[in-house]
Write a structure and sequence with these properties.
With 358 residues, the protein is α+β, with helices and mostly antiparallel strands. The protein has two domains: 96 residues, Glutaredoxin (3-Layer(aba) Sandwich); 162 residues, Glutathione S-transferase Yfyf (Class Pi), Chain A, domain 2. A six-stranded mixed beta sheet has the order 4-3-2-1-5-6, sandwiched between helices. Bound molecules: glutathione. The site of glutathione (GSH) has 12 residues, from helix 4.
Amino acid sequence: MPQPTVSTQGNENPNNQPTKNKGKSLPSGLIIKLGKFVWTTLWQIMMSKLAPRNQSGEYIRPSSQFRNFISTEVENPYQPAAGRYTLYVGLGCPWAHRTLVVRMLKGLEDVISVVIASPSPNQGIWVLNQEQEGCRSLPELYELAEPGYSGRCTVPVLWDKQTKTIVNNESAEIIMILNSEFNEFAKNPLLNLYPQELKEKIDIWNEKIYHAVNNGVYRCGFAQTQEAYEKACDELFATLDEIDTALEMSRYLCGDKVTLADVRLFTTLFRFDIVYYGLFKCNRYRIKDYRNLGFYLRDLYQLPGVADTCDLESVKRDYYGNLFPLNPGGIIPSGPDLRSLLEPHGRENLCKDKALQD
Ligand SMILES: N[C@@H](CCC(=O)N[C@@H](CS)C(=O)NCC(=O)O)C(=O)O
Protein backbone atom coordinates (compact mmCIF):
# COMPACT_ATOMS: atom_id res chain seq x y z
CA MET A 1 0.00 0.00 0.00
CA PRO A 2 1.52 3.42 -0.90
CA GLN A 3 2.55 5.40 2.15
CA PRO A 4 1.64 9.08 2.42
CA THR A 5 4.66 11.35 1.95
CA VAL A 6 5.63 13.10 5.16
CA SER A 7 7.40 16.42 4.81
CA THR A 8 10.68 16.50 6.70
CA GLN A 9 11.17 20.20 6.06
CA GLY A 10 12.79 21.88 9.04
CA ASN A 11 13.24 18.53 10.72
CA GLU A 12 15.78 16.83 8.54
CA ASN A 13 17.98 14.09 9.92
CA PRO A 14 18.54 11.96 6.82
CA ASN A 15 21.02 9.45 8.28
CA ASN A 16 19.27 9.08 11.59
CA GLN A 17 22.34 10.47 13.34
CA PRO A 18 22.00 11.60 16.95
CA THR A 19 21.20 15.32 16.88
CA LYS A 20 23.80 17.73 18.13
CA ASN A 21 21.45 19.99 20.14
CA LYS A 22 20.88 17.25 22.73
CA GLY A 23 21.97 19.52 25.58
CA LYS A 24 19.05 21.88 24.93
CA SER A 25 16.26 19.35 25.67
CA LEU A 26 15.12 18.39 29.16
CA PRO A 27 16.54 15.10 30.53
CA SER A 28 14.06 12.30 29.80
CA GLY A 29 13.87 11.27 33.49
CA LEU A 30 12.63 14.72 34.37
CA ILE A 31 10.05 14.68 31.56
CA ILE A 32 8.73 11.34 32.77
CA LYS A 33 8.57 12.50 36.40
CA LEU A 34 6.86 15.75 35.48
CA GLY A 35 4.45 14.06 33.09
CA LYS A 36 3.54 11.43 35.70
CA PHE A 37 2.98 14.03 38.39
CA VAL A 38 0.76 16.22 36.18
CA TRP A 39 -1.17 13.27 34.77
CA THR A 40 -1.66 11.51 38.13
CA THR A 41 -2.90 14.72 39.74
CA LEU A 42 -5.31 15.36 36.87
CA TRP A 43 -6.39 11.70 36.87
CA GLN A 44 -7.21 11.86 40.60
CA ILE A 45 -9.21 15.08 40.16
CA MET A 46 -11.14 13.71 37.18
CA MET A 47 -11.77 10.33 38.81
CA SER A 48 -13.14 12.01 41.95
CA LYS A 49 -15.76 13.73 39.74
CA LEU A 50 -16.51 10.65 37.65
CA ALA A 51 -16.52 8.09 40.45
CA PRO A 52 -17.15 8.99 44.10
CA ARG A 53 -14.86 6.90 46.34
CA ASN A 54 -14.37 5.96 49.97
CA GLN A 55 -11.10 6.23 51.88
CA SER A 56 -9.87 2.90 50.53
CA GLY A 57 -10.33 4.05 46.95
CA GLU A 58 -13.42 1.89 46.38
CA TYR A 59 -16.07 3.22 44.03
CA ILE A 60 -19.30 4.14 45.83
CA ARG A 61 -22.30 4.55 43.53
CA PRO A 62 -24.63 7.37 44.61
CA SER A 63 -28.23 6.27 45.14
CA SER A 64 -31.03 7.34 42.80
CA GLN A 65 -33.21 10.24 43.97
CA PHE A 66 -36.62 9.85 42.27
CA ARG A 67 -38.41 6.79 43.59
CA ASN A 68 -42.13 7.06 42.83
CA PHE A 69 -44.24 4.23 41.43
CA ILE A 70 -46.93 4.10 38.78
CA SER A 71 -50.02 2.20 39.92
CA THR A 72 -53.81 2.17 39.87
CA GLU A 73 -54.04 2.99 43.59
CA VAL A 74 -56.58 5.79 43.92
CA GLU A 75 -54.28 8.20 45.74
CA ASN A 76 -51.39 7.75 43.32
CA PRO A 77 -50.89 10.76 41.00
CA TYR A 78 -49.05 8.46 38.54
CA GLN A 79 -51.72 6.28 36.98
CA PRO A 80 -50.91 3.84 34.16
CA ALA A 81 -51.91 5.22 30.77
CA ALA A 82 -50.83 4.71 27.17
CA GLY A 83 -48.78 7.58 25.75
CA ARG A 84 -48.34 9.41 29.07
CA TYR A 85 -44.81 8.30 30.00
CA THR A 86 -41.42 8.49 28.27
CA LEU A 87 -38.21 6.63 28.95
CA TYR A 88 -35.02 8.66 28.57
CA VAL A 89 -32.16 6.28 27.87
CA GLY A 90 -28.57 6.16 26.70
CA LEU A 91 -27.89 3.20 24.41
CA GLY A 92 -24.49 2.53 25.96
CA CYS A 93 -25.83 2.42 29.52
CA PRO A 94 -26.50 -1.04 31.01
CA TRP A 95 -29.01 0.33 33.54
CA ALA A 96 -31.04 2.06 30.84
CA HIS A 97 -30.74 -1.00 28.63
CA ARG A 98 -32.66 -3.05 31.24
CA THR A 99 -35.69 -0.80 30.76
CA LEU A 100 -35.55 -1.17 26.96
CA VAL A 101 -35.42 -4.97 27.28
CA VAL A 102 -38.47 -5.13 29.57
CA ARG A 103 -40.37 -2.61 27.41
CA MET A 104 -39.67 -4.87 24.43
CA LEU A 105 -40.47 -8.20 26.13
CA LYS A 106 -43.75 -6.86 27.47
CA GLY A 107 -44.66 -5.33 24.10
CA LEU A 108 -44.91 -1.75 25.33
CA GLU A 109 -43.32 -0.04 22.31
CA ASP A 110 -46.57 1.80 21.43
CA VAL A 111 -47.37 2.63 25.04
CA ILE A 112 -44.15 4.12 26.40
CA SER A 113 -42.07 6.33 24.14
CA VAL A 114 -38.29 6.44 24.17
CA VAL A 115 -35.97 9.43 23.89
CA ILE A 116 -32.30 8.75 23.32
CA ALA A 117 -29.56 10.74 25.01
CA SER A 118 -25.87 10.66 24.14
CA PRO A 119 -22.92 11.55 26.30
CA SER A 120 -21.26 14.87 25.51
CA PRO A 121 -17.52 14.16 25.77
CA ASN A 122 -16.49 17.66 26.84
CA GLN A 123 -19.25 18.47 29.30
CA GLY A 124 -19.67 15.10 31.03
CA ILE A 125 -23.46 15.24 30.70
CA TRP A 126 -26.13 13.44 28.68
CA VAL A 127 -27.49 15.53 25.80
CA LEU A 128 -30.82 14.75 24.17
CA ASN A 129 -30.82 13.73 20.54
CA GLN A 130 -33.87 15.95 20.04
CA GLU A 131 -35.24 18.77 22.18
CA GLN A 132 -37.90 17.62 24.67
CA GLU A 133 -40.06 19.73 26.98
CA GLY A 134 -37.85 22.69 25.97
CA CYS A 135 -34.77 20.83 27.26
CA ARG A 136 -31.63 19.91 25.35
CA SER A 137 -29.86 17.95 28.05
CA LEU A 138 -30.56 15.69 31.01
CA PRO A 139 -29.52 18.32 33.62
CA GLU A 140 -32.13 20.66 32.10
CA LEU A 141 -34.78 17.93 32.35
CA TYR A 142 -33.88 17.20 35.99
CA GLU A 143 -34.02 20.96 36.70
CA LEU A 144 -37.50 21.10 35.16
CA ALA A 145 -38.61 18.18 37.35
CA GLU A 146 -37.07 19.59 40.50
CA PRO A 147 -35.79 23.17 40.40
CA GLY A 148 -32.46 23.41 42.23
CA TYR A 149 -31.76 19.66 41.90
CA SER A 150 -28.09 19.10 42.63
CA GLY A 151 -27.68 15.29 42.41
CA ARG A 152 -26.38 13.28 39.48
CA CYS A 153 -28.36 13.41 36.27
CA THR A 154 -28.46 9.77 35.22
CA VAL A 155 -30.26 7.62 32.67
CA PRO A 156 -32.68 5.89 32.68
CA VAL A 157 -35.42 8.36 33.55
CA LEU A 158 -39.12 7.48 33.57
CA TRP A 159 -40.77 10.80 32.74
CA ASP A 160 -44.40 11.82 33.17
CA LYS A 161 -45.43 14.13 30.33
CA GLN A 162 -48.63 15.09 32.16
CA THR A 163 -47.10 16.48 35.35
CA LYS A 164 -43.73 17.22 33.71
CA THR A 165 -41.71 15.41 36.27
CA ILE A 166 -39.50 12.40 36.83
CA VAL A 167 -41.47 9.51 38.27
CA ASN A 168 -38.46 7.29 38.83
CA ASN A 169 -34.75 7.22 37.88
CA GLU A 170 -33.80 3.84 39.34
CA SER A 171 -33.66 1.11 36.70
CA ALA A 172 -34.33 -1.71 39.19
CA GLU A 173 -37.68 -0.08 40.03
CA ILE A 174 -38.55 1.11 36.53
CA ILE A 175 -38.39 -2.48 35.25
CA MET A 176 -40.74 -3.61 38.02
CA ILE A 177 -43.19 -0.87 37.04
CA LEU A 178 -43.04 -1.84 33.36
CA ASN A 179 -43.45 -5.50 34.23
CA SER A 180 -46.61 -5.13 36.29
CA GLU A 181 -48.40 -1.82 35.81
CA PHE A 182 -49.08 -1.56 32.07
CA ASN A 183 -50.66 -4.96 31.41
CA GLU A 184 -53.88 -3.32 30.26
CA PHE A 185 -51.96 -1.87 27.29
CA ALA A 186 -49.18 -4.44 26.79
CA LYS A 187 -48.97 -6.82 23.84
CA ASN A 188 -47.68 -9.51 26.24
CA PRO A 189 -49.69 -8.94 29.42
CA LEU A 190 -49.34 -12.54 30.56
CA LEU A 191 -45.56 -12.44 30.67
CA ASN A 192 -44.65 -11.94 34.31
CA LEU A 193 -40.95 -11.41 34.90
CA TYR A 194 -41.39 -11.20 38.68
CA PRO A 195 -43.89 -13.92 39.61
CA GLN A 196 -44.92 -14.32 43.23
CA GLU A 197 -43.54 -17.86 43.55
CA LEU A 198 -40.05 -16.83 42.38
CA LYS A 199 -39.77 -13.47 44.15
CA GLU A 200 -37.53 -14.72 46.93
CA LYS A 201 -35.14 -16.46 44.52
CA ILE A 202 -35.07 -13.48 42.17
CA ASP A 203 -34.35 -11.07 45.04
CA ILE A 204 -31.45 -13.20 46.28
CA TRP A 205 -29.84 -13.32 42.84
CA ASN A 206 -30.49 -9.61 42.28
CA GLU A 207 -28.76 -8.58 45.44
CA LYS A 208 -25.72 -10.76 44.82
CA ILE A 209 -25.44 -9.87 41.14
CA TYR A 210 -25.95 -6.13 41.65
CA HIS A 211 -23.09 -5.85 44.10
CA ALA A 212 -20.58 -8.18 42.50
CA VAL A 213 -21.43 -8.04 38.79
CA ASN A 214 -23.67 -5.15 37.62
CA ASN A 215 -21.99 -2.64 39.90
CA GLY A 216 -19.01 -4.95 40.34
CA VAL A 217 -17.61 -4.21 36.89
CA TYR A 218 -17.78 -0.49 37.73
CA ARG A 219 -16.08 -1.20 41.07
CA CYS A 220 -13.21 -2.73 39.06
CA GLY A 221 -13.07 0.00 36.42
CA PHE A 222 -13.50 2.95 38.77
CA ALA A 223 -11.29 1.61 41.60
CA GLN A 224 -8.75 4.20 42.61
CA THR A 225 -6.31 1.92 44.44
CA GLN A 226 -4.81 -1.48 43.61
CA GLU A 227 -6.46 -3.03 46.70
CA ALA A 228 -9.89 -1.71 45.79
CA TYR A 229 -9.52 -3.08 42.28
CA GLU A 230 -8.40 -6.52 43.44
CA LYS A 231 -11.23 -6.83 45.95
CA ALA A 232 -13.83 -5.94 43.31
CA CYS A 233 -12.22 -8.24 40.76
CA ASP A 234 -12.15 -11.22 43.16
CA GLU A 235 -15.82 -10.73 44.00
CA LEU A 236 -16.77 -10.33 40.35
CA PHE A 237 -15.13 -13.53 39.16
CA ALA A 238 -16.20 -15.56 42.20
CA THR A 239 -19.80 -14.58 41.46
CA LEU A 240 -19.48 -15.29 37.73
CA ASP A 241 -18.19 -18.77 38.68
CA GLU A 242 -21.18 -19.28 40.95
CA ILE A 243 -23.62 -18.18 38.25
CA ASP A 244 -21.91 -20.37 35.67
CA THR A 245 -22.32 -23.38 37.97
CA ALA A 246 -25.99 -22.60 38.58
CA LEU A 247 -26.59 -22.33 34.84
CA GLU A 248 -25.29 -25.86 34.34
CA MET A 249 -28.58 -27.19 35.72
CA SER A 250 -30.96 -24.42 34.89
CA ARG A 251 -31.76 -22.63 31.63
CA TYR A 252 -32.28 -19.28 33.37
CA LEU A 253 -31.27 -18.06 36.82
CA CYS A 254 -34.53 -19.09 38.50
CA GLY A 255 -35.55 -22.09 36.40
CA ASP A 256 -37.00 -22.46 32.91
CA LYS A 257 -38.59 -19.01 32.77
CA VAL A 258 -36.90 -15.67 32.10
CA THR A 259 -37.22 -13.30 35.06
CA LEU A 260 -36.09 -9.80 35.99
CA ALA A 261 -32.94 -11.37 37.44
CA ASP A 262 -31.94 -12.53 33.94
CA VAL A 263 -32.71 -9.15 32.39
CA ARG A 264 -30.57 -7.38 34.97
CA LEU A 265 -27.67 -9.76 34.39
CA PHE A 266 -28.05 -9.74 30.60
CA THR A 267 -27.20 -6.07 30.04
CA THR A 268 -23.94 -6.44 31.96
CA LEU A 269 -23.00 -9.69 30.24
CA PHE A 270 -23.69 -8.16 26.82
CA ARG A 271 -21.12 -5.41 27.54
CA PHE A 272 -18.59 -7.64 29.25
CA ASP A 273 -16.37 -8.82 26.40
CA ILE A 274 -16.93 -5.53 24.54
CA VAL A 275 -15.91 -3.02 27.20
CA TYR A 276 -15.55 -4.32 30.75
CA TYR A 277 -12.91 -6.92 29.84
CA GLY A 278 -10.57 -4.29 28.42
CA LEU A 279 -11.51 -0.81 29.62
CA PHE A 280 -12.52 -1.83 33.17
CA LYS A 281 -9.73 -4.44 33.52
CA CYS A 282 -12.17 -7.31 34.17
CA ASN A 283 -9.86 -9.53 32.22
CA ARG A 284 -9.45 -12.83 34.03
CA TYR A 285 -11.90 -14.44 31.62
CA ARG A 286 -14.29 -13.39 28.89
CA ILE A 287 -17.94 -14.43 29.08
CA LYS A 288 -17.41 -16.63 26.05
CA ASP A 289 -14.68 -18.55 27.97
CA TYR A 290 -17.21 -19.92 30.47
CA ARG A 291 -18.87 -23.30 30.09
CA ASN A 292 -22.42 -21.93 30.33
CA LEU A 293 -22.45 -18.14 30.56
CA GLY A 294 -21.64 -17.57 26.89
CA PHE A 295 -24.50 -19.82 25.71
CA TYR A 296 -26.85 -18.28 28.28
CA LEU A 297 -25.97 -14.83 26.92
CA ARG A 298 -26.80 -16.06 23.39
CA ASP A 299 -30.10 -17.49 24.63
CA LEU A 300 -31.16 -14.15 26.13
CA TYR A 301 -29.89 -12.20 23.12
CA GLN A 302 -32.07 -14.35 20.87
CA LEU A 303 -35.32 -13.74 22.81
CA PRO A 304 -37.83 -11.94 20.56
CA GLY A 305 -36.88 -8.28 20.10
CA VAL A 306 -33.93 -8.30 22.51
CA ALA A 307 -31.20 -8.05 19.84
CA ASP A 308 -32.92 -4.86 18.61
CA THR A 309 -32.27 -3.24 21.98
CA CYS A 310 -28.51 -3.95 21.76
CA ASP A 311 -26.33 -1.37 20.08
CA LEU A 312 -22.71 -2.45 19.90
CA GLU A 313 -21.43 0.77 18.33
CA SER A 314 -23.09 2.99 20.95
CA VAL A 315 -21.73 0.80 23.74
CA LYS A 316 -18.17 1.14 22.41
CA ARG A 317 -18.52 4.86 21.68
CA ASP A 318 -20.12 5.71 25.04
CA TYR A 319 -17.52 3.88 27.13
CA TYR A 320 -14.27 4.15 25.20
CA GLY A 321 -15.04 7.56 23.76
CA ASN A 322 -16.31 9.26 26.89
CA LEU A 323 -14.64 7.87 29.99
CA PHE A 324 -11.64 10.12 29.39
CA PRO A 325 -9.60 9.28 32.53
CA LEU A 326 -9.74 5.59 31.59
CA ASN A 327 -8.97 6.07 27.89
CA PRO A 328 -7.38 9.49 27.35
CA GLY A 329 -6.48 8.81 23.71
CA GLY A 330 -10.15 8.20 22.94
CA ILE A 331 -9.36 5.36 20.53
CA ILE A 332 -12.33 3.05 20.07
CA PRO A 333 -11.39 -0.61 19.52
CA SER A 334 -12.52 -2.30 16.33
CA GLY A 335 -13.76 -5.58 17.86
CA PRO A 336 -15.19 -7.80 19.04
CA ASP A 337 -17.14 -9.69 16.41
CA LEU A 338 -20.53 -10.47 17.94
CA ARG A 339 -21.93 -12.67 15.18
CA SER A 340 -21.61 -15.75 17.40
CA LEU A 341 -24.45 -14.36 19.54
CA LEU A 342 -26.76 -15.45 16.75
CA GLU A 343 -25.49 -19.02 16.64
CA PRO A 344 -27.41 -21.88 18.33
CA HIS A 345 -27.19 -21.87 22.12
CA GLY A 346 -28.47 -25.40 22.73
CA ARG A 347 -30.13 -24.51 26.05
CA GLU A 348 -33.77 -25.08 25.04
CA ASN A 349 -34.15 -28.45 26.73
CA LEU A 350 -31.73 -27.99 29.58
CA CYS A 351 -34.16 -28.31 32.48
CA LYS A 352 -35.90 -31.29 30.86
CA ASP A 353 -32.60 -33.07 30.02
CA LYS A 354 -31.31 -32.62 33.55
CA ALA A 355 -34.59 -33.84 35.01
CA LEU A 356 -34.38 -37.00 32.90
CA GLN A 357 -30.82 -37.71 34.02
CA ASP A 358 -31.67 -37.29 37.73
N1 LIG B 1 -28.75 3.15 39.93
C1 LIG B 1 -29.00 3.80 38.67
C2 LIG B 1 -27.69 4.05 37.95
C3 LIG B 1 -27.85 4.78 36.63
C4 LIG B 1 -26.48 5.30 36.12
O1 LIG B 1 -25.50 5.36 36.86
N2 LIG B 1 -26.45 5.69 34.83
C5 LIG B 1 -25.22 6.25 34.27
C6 LIG B 1 -25.03 5.83 32.84
S1 LIG B 1 -24.54 4.16 32.67
C7 LIG B 1 -25.31 7.76 34.24
O2 LIG B 1 -26.26 8.30 33.74
N3 LIG B 1 -24.29 8.44 34.76
C8 LIG B 1 -24.19 9.88 34.73
C9 LIG B 1 -23.63 10.41 36.03
O3 LIG B 1 -23.39 9.64 36.95
O4 LIG B 1 -23.45 11.62 36.08
C10 LIG B 1 -29.95 2.93 37.88
O5 LIG B 1 -29.81 1.70 37.93
O6 LIG B 1 -30.84 3.45 37.22
